Amino acid sequence: NESLFNLVSVTDDEAQYFYEQNKDQLTRDEQVKAAHILVATKEEADELVKQIKNNANFSELAVLKSIDPSAKFNHGDLGYFSHGQMVEEFEDAAFALPIGHSTTVKTQFGYHLLKVLDKKSAGIIPYSEAKEELKSNLLLEKQRKLVQDSVELLKQNSNIKYYP
Length: 164
Prior knowledge:
Layout: H1 12-22, E1 27-28, E2 31-39, H2 42-53, H3 58-65, H4 71-74, E3 77-82, H5 88-96, E4 102-107, E5 110-120, E6 123-124, H6 127-156
Antiparallel strand pairs: 1-6, 2-3, 2-5, 4-5
């Protein structure tokens, strides 16, 4: 089953070249990756802090104790976020903490045991992080052009008559 799309591909060199030509536009804001366990009371938060200090597994506790419904499948991991995406108290704490550190934060939702998992500084996205998405986008662009060119070729070689 030969597909038209098998005729096009994107090499690492093409992706690298595109990156070098366009990296000024491939930027991101400062980001932090955090996980949290949301509970209703300060007492519950304090109890979680004790358990974490006694080497309890953060992600397992998130599944068992968090009242955030998403914790059941994301284990409390909120992924990366930039400024302006989370409630202010939570965000301020997340950006202030070093990687690997935890704190308790009170917000309108309750008490969060917050753990910073990673940080990415603002600036140009490194090629290693951009490569796969660039290759995917370049491939889609080649496929789109291939379809356009094929349609034009079919039009030129057809006997279709257009009447006003």
